[in-house]
Amino acid sequence: MTRTTRGRSLLMVAVAGCTMLWTSIAIGGAVNEGYSHLRDYVSALSGRGSSAAFVGMLGLIGFSSASAAAGLSFRGISRFTMAAWLAAAFAGVVVALARISCPEGAAMCSVGDDGPSDALDTLHGIAVVAYELCFLAGATATAVTLARASHAKPRERGIAVGLVSLAVASALTIVSTPESTPGGMQRVWLAINTSGVLLAAYSGCRLLRRGSTP
Q1: DSSP 3-state assignment of 101?
Q2: C-alpha torsion 209→211→212→214, nearest 10
Q3: I need a labelling partner for 197 at 20 to 30 A (CA). Which of 95, 141, 156, 180 fits?
Q4: Domain assignment of residue 199, given as a range
């Protein structure tokens, strides 16, 4: 397999994985009675007690595969960039498997809930934080790799600026989540992170095709 073919294949995997995430959110929200995309968290769709929880799990695992594809597109280009995205993928899988407790269904699950958490709830929260840190590292490392790439063109530099902007925006959405519509803000956060993953995979594909190295 040539470098160009490998890059294109990985980009297709990234696109498919991100599509799986958003499709699962749409389907999961539709099959869970009373679920609100503005109020409720995405994690509730794969929670214990959620209707068709496997749909939510598949979406999260699909998104993890997109992060893994982004990382593998930098194999032979930047070890740190590859490792950061692969770590994000691993954390995403843990998020999918460590399902939060939703005994009454996905609607209202974990929104305004001050009850006790079990081990899986705790692990889920830790994995989400780990994923975000890895995403920030991956986006930043990708931007640096692009800026330092041999024969870097204005498009690569523009993508690098875009990735840094997405990393900043991702962090800001977390610290500015409104109490009234946390689910809506989480979807904004996911949209930002989805864009970052796709940009990273696209960047790796371009560098592979051109045979550029830092």
Answers
A1: strand
A2: 120
A3: 180
A4: 3-210
For 157-173, b/e burial (b = at least 16 CB within 10 A) is eebbebbbebbebbbeb
Burial of 189 (0-12, 13-18, 19+ CB in 10 A): buried
pLDDT digits (tens, 9 = 90+) for 65-98: 999 999 999 998 999 999 999 999 999 999 999 9
Residue located via tokens 């592979």: 208
Distance CA 123, CA 144 (A): 31
Q: Taking the model in full, what pTM does it have?
A: 0.92
Strand (E) or helix (H) holding 4: helix 3-31
Q: Are 197 and 14 in contact (CB under 8 A)?
A: yes
Give how many domains the chain has, as a whole number: 1
Q: What is the pLDDT of residue 153?
A: 74
